[in-house]
Write a structure and sequence with these properties.
CATH superfamily of the largest domain: FAD/NAD(P)-binding domain
Radius of gyration: 24 Å
Mean pLDDT: 97
Protein name: Dihydrolipoyl dehydrogenase
Number of domains: 3
CATH class of the largest domain: Alpha Beta
Subcellular location: Cytoplasm
Structural class: alpha/beta
Number of helices: 13
Strand content: 25-35%
CATH topology of the largest domain: FAD/NAD(P)-binding domain
Catalytic activity: N(6)-[(R)-dihydrolipoyl]-L-lysyl-[protein] + NAD(+) = N(6)-[(R)-lipoyl]-L-lysyl-[protein] + NADH + H(+)
Distance between the termini: 73 Å
Keywords: Cytoplasm, Disulfide bond, FAD, Flavoprotein, NAD, Nucleotide-binding, Oxidoreductase, Redox-active center
Strand order of the largest sheet: 1-2-3-4-5
Low-confidence stretches: none
Family: Belongs to the class-I pyridine nucleotide-disulfide oxidoreductase family.
Length: about 475
């Protein structure tokens, strides 16, 4: 047993919540340690959490590669560009993804050195009196004592009892990023962010993709007008999305994975070569708390916190996927900054109502704030305006005219309550809605701002104008 080491802050978890919290705390003059158990494909410690190693960043790399290939096959001819017998080298594509991941995990290590954050590689557990015990990968144990501990352990994929991950035929997001060849038939359980993104990757490369979604409505979290447009575009692309399909069995046989599911027509069967299970994620809090620690977990395994991410136990905080709120990397990062600043005696707060969502399919889907249905359920009077990308010069010139932007405003105050988008680059465009809502702006504020022409963002402008039937480039 090594001698106990003392810090002002110990962060458990080196993902987008934890590493950001550690860096910000160090910037504020605090002595900081960060504990992380993540390993790269080479078996060596790799900071960055699920998001960087096997989530957000690698999936975007594959989405971009597959999009380039798909456009070469189906889109470039419209521009007068042709190529004979193009082919995709999956090994090179995956290698490029791995290189990008290594670049960024290494970048965090360099940032830790620059900010004098001390990393510890292994599994951390919280004990009484803010003592963190770390079982390092070499089997040794270290003890870290801190005035403040930030729990940022993230989340894990949910495994179905009848479809256990085997890393080959039945996989989670990790395996779905590392196929060594394009599967002829890919089954996906869950039409959420992971299912749609990875389903899109392999569909573009030639796989027959069938997505089984238990819910009766597609992308229920998004505004209905947006999900309707997205569903239509995905169908055109060949994604077979079956709604109300509840899977009950997955058997691995020589000829593939045999699935049994029930839908409105009764019991159905499907055989696929690979099965991606993407039914959601749960807080990674198993074996986190030592005996006698007063930190509470709810029925979902999440750490209970107040609006400032404090657990109620002196000096113990929790952020990111292991607490309430959306399981999004950027939400975790902002909570990490807020908690570090609160520890340093500064104000810190995250407005969960203005956290943006983005799905990086083609077309992209993004939103911030309430949907029209949510407003009606809450009895909020609204007025809405929408505008299609098909009427936008830049989108048409890019050969990406699918989609629309919808702005929802309070019918009496005109304050923007939600902005919902489906179309090219909307993961970037959504932030005009975020900023407007953060500054408590009105639809008229957006409508009176001058947007560059030609630009995709003009669709946001026209949708804001349409709230009061003032859109210029469509009939109101």
């Amino acid at each position: 047993m090594s001698e106990q080491q003392n810090f002002d802050v110990v962060v458990i978890g080196g993902g987008p919540g934890g590493y950001v919290a550690a860096i910000r705390a160090a910037q504020l003059g605090l002595k900081v340690a960060c504990v992380d158990a993540g390993l790269g494909k080479d078996g060596k410690p790799a900071l960055g959490g699920t998001c960087l190693r096997v989530g957000c960043i690698p999936s975007k790399a594959l989405l971009d590669s597959s999009r380039q290939f798909h456009n070469l096959l189906h889109g470039f001819a419209d521009h007068g560009i042709s190529a004979e017998k193009p082919k995709m080298d999956v090994g090179v594509m995956v290698g490029r993804k791995d290189k990008i991941v290594s670049q960024f995990t290494g970048g965090i290590t360099m940032l830790f050195k620059a900010n004098k954050v001390t990393p510890f590689y292994g599994f951390g557990t919280l004990h009484k009196d803010n003592l963190v015990k770390v079982r390092q990968h070499d089997g040794s144990e270290v003890e870290l004592k801190a005035a403040n501990v930030i729990i940022a352990t993230g989340s894990d994929s949910i495994e179905l009892p009848f479809a256990k991950f085997d890393g080959d035929r039945i996989v989670d997001n990790v395996g779905g990023l590392d196929f060594d060849a394009v599967p002829k038939r890919l089954g996906v359980i869950g039409a959420g962010v992971i299912g749609l993104e990875l389903g899109s990757v392999w569909n573009r490369l030639g796989a027959e993709v069938t997505i089984l979604e238990a819910l009766p409505t597609f992308l229920a979290a998004a505004d209905a007008d947006i999900s309707k447009v997205a569903a239509r575009e995905f169908k055109k692309q060949g994604l077979d999305i079956k709604l109300g399909a509840k899977v009950s069995k997955a058997e691995v046989k020589k000829d593939g994975v045999h699935l049994t599911y029930d839908d409105a027509k009764g019991e159905q069967t499907l055989v696929v070569d690979k099965l991606l299970v993407a039914v959601g994620r749960r807080a990674a809090t198993a074996k986190l708390l030592g005996e006698g620690v007063a930190v509470k977990l709810n029925e979902r395994g999440q750490v209970e916190v107040d609006e400032h991410c404090h657990t109620g136990v002196d000096g113990v905080w929790a952020i990111g996927d292991c607490v309430r709120g959306p399981m999004l990397a950027h939400k975790a990062s902002e909570e990490g900054v807020a908690v570090a600043e609160l520890i340093a005696g500064l104000p810190g707060h995250v407005n969960l109502d203005t956290v943006p969502w983005a799905i990086y399919t083609e077309p992209e889907i993004a939103w911030v704030g309430k949907t029209e249905a949510q407003c009606k359920e809450e009895g909020i009077p609204v007025k809405t305006g929408s505008f299609p990308f098909a009427a936008n010069g830049r989108a048409v010139a890019m050969n990406e005219p699918a989609g629309l932007v919808k702005v929802i405003a309070h019918a009496e105050t005109d304050r923007v309550l939600g902005v919902h988008l489906c179309g090219p680059n909307v993961s970037e465009l959504v932030h005009s809605g975020v900023i407007t809502m953060e500054f408590q702006g009105a639809a008229d504020d957006l409508a009176r701002i001058c947007f560059a022409h030609p630009a995709l963002s003009e669709v946001v402008h026209e949708a804001a104008l349409a709230v009061d039937k003032r859109a210029i480039h469509k009939a109101n």
